[in-house]
Amino acid sequence: QVQLAESGGGLVQAGGSLRLSCVASGRSVGSSVVGWFRQAPGKEREFVGAINWSGKITNYRDSVKGRFTISKDNTVNTVYLQMSNLKPDDTAVYYCALDPTFAWTGAAEGRRNYNYWGQGTQVTVSA
Predict the structure, then answer these.
(1) CA distances to 16, 33, 40, 75, 77 from 56, in Å
(2) Is-contact 99 115, C-beta < 8 A?
(3) Which of 43, 66, 110, 121 is deepest in the core (most CB within 10 A)?
């Protein structure tokens, strides 16, 4: 059974940084696509970024490019989302999700690509 556990969220001032972690069990992140999504109150869950199985390909939504970076450590089966220069608009619950294939369908942006989801971690950015 695949399980994902996010951590690292919290309250930060605008311009600050946070690093979120997504620890996977039951499936290696080294043979999966892992994505990050976020959902703000009253809004749809939206794609933030993703990393492919090899770690050599990433994709980000335009609004976070240059500020967010996804990386992974296969030895601890963990994917990270490093967030810098945070803005109040980044406030949301952040979820990691796993696609247990080697595919990179639609640049991994679609929620339907992912079979497994974590419970989420709250990120709040104050002005």
Answers:
(1) 27, 11, 29, 16, 16
(2) yes
(3) 121
| 69 phi/psi in degrees, rounded to 5 | -140, 130
- What b/e readout covers 41-56, taking b as 16+ CB neighbours within 10 angstroms? eeeebebbbbbbbebe
Measure the CA–CA gap between 65 and 11, rounded to whole angstroms. Answer: 21
The C-alpha atoms of residue 117 and residue 104 are separated, in whole angstroms, by 17
**Which residues, 6 or more positions from 10, have their beta carbon under 8 angstroms from its beta carbon?**
18, 122, 123, 124
Per-residue pLDDT of the chain (127 residues; tens, 9 = 90+): 999 999 999 999 999 999 999 999 999 999 999 999 999 999 999 999 999 999 999 999 999 999 999 999 999 999 999 999 999 999 999 999 999 988 898 889 999 999 999 999 999 999 9
Spatial separation of the C-alpha atoms in residues 93 and 118, rounded to whole Å: 11
Amino acid at 46: E
Q: How do strand 68-73 and strand 92-99 relate by DSSP bridges? A: unpaired
